[in-house]
Amino acid sequence: MTLPSQERKELIKLRLENAHTAIEDAILLLNNNSLRSSMSRIFYSMFYAVSALAIADGKSFNKHRALLAYFHKQYASTRVLDRKHGRALQKAFEDRSEADYQDYLHITREQIQERIAEAREFIQAIQEHLSNRT
Length: 134
Known about the structure:
The protein is mainly alpha-helical and 134 residues long. It has helices at 5-31, 35-56, 64-76, 83-101, 109-133. The protein has a single domain (5-133), classed as Nucleotidyltransferases  domain 2 (Four Helix Bundle (Hemerythrin (Met), subunit A)).
């Protein structure tokens, strides 16, 4: 991905804003007992944050799994970011898949509340990493 510096910065900012919006949406959905949709928004909040990180690295991915693999390889396994963030991202992806594709949901409100806390910490870690790079 080759973008002029200013466009790249604007896109990173937009993706981080999308991450924050998605996590706030997840809370609203949880408060309205929409567990499936809340779980989806949690994953996408993390997805947007990782997308911002990839854009900062000049990368672009067309598939969720490719973006997750990039994050694990470049950031979690190398401990650039704490491994717990890699585990949280993976769990959010799995939970989102269950919420989207399984007839019976085995995710509780308490689990969603935990995922929201993990997603917030995840987004914060990425923002701090990005701000330390500039």
